[in-house]
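Lecture 7 notes: from sequence to structure.

We start with a single chain of 477 residues. Read the sequence below before looking at the structure.
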Amino acid sequence: MRFAPRSLFGRLVLILLGGLLLAQFATIYINLAERDQLLYRAGGMRLAQQMSDIVKLLDSLPAAERRKVVAVFNAPPLTVSLDRPRLKARQESVEGDFAHSMFIAVLRFALGEEAQLNVVRLEDAPQSFRPGPQRIAPPDMAMMPMMQGRGWEHRMGPGFSQGGTFFTVQIALHDGSWVTFDSFLSPQASAVPLRLALTLLILLGTVIALSLIAVRWVTGPLSELAVAAEKLGEDINRPPLAETGPSEAQRAARAFNTMQRRLSRFIADRTRIFTAMSHDLKTPITRLRLRSELLDDEALRGKFVRDLEEMEAMVTQTLDFMRDANAQEPVQRVDAMALIESLQTDYQDTGSKVDIEGSIVQPYPGRPLALRRCLSNLVGNAIRYGGRATIKLDDAASLLTIRVLDDGPGIPEDEMEQAFEPFFRGEASRNRETGGTGLGLGIARNIARAHGGELVLRNRSEGGLEATLTLPRTAAS
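Now the structure, written as tokens:
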């Protein structure tokens, strides 16, 4: 199955076309085989009947008169001779030789089963068919149109030039003498008739067209369902799938729409819960901040402030992680290069070092605020754990690739995927100096996937971590 099409549409079309072609070839073979047999029977019967009539006529005449009759009929494609030596009867089997066995059968039918005959199939035209000075037409035939003109090859018609079957037939007369016939049986079926070819071609084309329409009609709803499933990850509130088509497709679309509504309702409920929790938490955090100002111990007051700031950051970033703000922001043409340069300026103003390698020429169709948040999280992580960040850009016609590199300790390979989980922090960040809530990478990946892209991490061979953000130019539109 290595060369089989990957899509259901391609596989169904391949099966249908393969079956149709085999059926058409079988039909052509059967039609041509039967046609050959019918034409051979018809042609052989006429030739056998002609020989039978000549034999009966010669039997009714005295020997002196027979040569005159022979001279009248002695012209290709049937030459007659009375003075040819008798051929040795051949005992070879004619099984599988349709022309030979058929001709013997029709001869016996025309002459009678008691007739003595010897039939030899020839590989080439007999000597009597070949032109020469010895073949002089008798005076009686001088005015016959078939004997006039260019030559015997032309009078035999197109069947001879296309090949046929040559026979030498010897038949015993009542007085014991033998008459020899050199004959030619034209196949008349060496080429496919135009009418049959056109009929089969029209039939094949019609069936293929109807098959393609039927397969497309059946697989169309499946394609729409696959596209809807892909888009669902980018926008949970996308318009519902049209419940049309066959009953099975309608059931699948109805189940998909029901799943989408449940997911949307679940996410909305969860967002409302976290929003309410945030609102409720901000009040006690504010009260604790005010009370911490009343502490006389400077060191203790500083510890309380740092804890409260960390709690407030966790609440805020949790809301950012849960909030489906990406779907609310409209897609527009973003000058990604200007966005990254402004981000570089912001970090440099705070004393951080951010380098940019490469450039982005074409605008990117995306959500600017979400993209800025994604890149800010990646650059912030690089600066927090590596001291500096390097942004490498690769702008292709269909894909925008942004890589953020740092010189930090990296992440263990077995924790690489866990780094995107909420509130996960590696050993290098579990201290007060680096801070962090463990939500930045998760938010960045959600934004990347909302644009139809992906975010992956890998440890650099020279040390540090590389975050690769890939953004297709058509998925976010």
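The domain at 329-472 is CATH 3.30.565.10 (Heat Shock Protein 90). Keep this in mind for problem set 3.
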